[in-house]
Specification:
six-stranded mixed sheet, 27% helix, alpha/beta, single chain, 192 residues, Double Stranded RNA Binding Domain
Length: 192
């Protein structure tokens, strides 16, 4: 009986302490952007959102003992999600979004170049979760083509985590911040 109990405890410790690596997905976008000082009512058309990363599933890693221990992944369609969330942000910022490519004041292309989250399990009392998203936008305005590069990064302390789902709110916040930054920058563009 004690052998059976010892085996049970050992199995519990082994499975209970392992890192549960699940797909990390985006949470619903909380539209917290409003631009009231815009003098111009601009219409915007999002022509494309394209994920240029070679590995569209990998989004970072968990580091343990100064080595990559576990690869973080997501089966999220970042192109689709980014386009939906960006459209919602433009609506909340009082842009006209129900337009077509020919009549829009601004036509936008978004290219996702990097999504990386690093959770360092070796760091106990400092920021141990770091994230970065790099994007390029191309805005067509009248006859002009305006290219802008965006790098959204953040870091925070995350309590000892044994489940990749603990990182979801951080990823969602990073995406929301990058969307808000794009909308603010595009709002500053003059139509003339």
């Amino acid at each position: 009986m004690t052998k059976l109990f010892s085996i049970f405890i050992l199995a519990l410790l082994i499975t209970g302490c392992s890192y549960k690596n699940q797909s990390i997905n985006l949470q619903p976008y909380q539209a917290d952007i409003s631009i009231n000082n815009s003098q111009e009512k601009k219409s915007v058309y999002i022509k494309t959102v394209k994920d240029l990363r070679t590995n569209k599933i990998s989004i970072g890693s968990v580091i343990k003992d100064n080595e990559d221990d576990i690869s973080l992944f997501s089966d999220e369609s970042f192109e689709k999600e980014y386009k939906e969330k960006l459209t919602k942000a433009f609506k909340n910022a009082q842009f006209i979004t129900n337009t077509d490519i020919l009549s829009a004041d601004l036509v936008i292309e978004v290219y996702i170049e990097k999504i990386e989250l690093i959770y360092n399990k070796n760091i106990s009392f400092d920021k141990n979760l770091n994230g970065e998203i790099q994007l390029t936008t191309i805005v067509y305005k009248n006859e002009k083509k305006i290219r802008q590069n965006f790098k959204q990064s953040a870091s925070k302390w995350l309590a000892n985590s044994h489940n990749s789902k603990d990182i979801e709110p951080f990823l969602s916040s990073l995406f929301s911040d990058s969307i808000n930054t794009i909308v603010y920058k595009i709002d500053k563009l003059k139509l003339n």
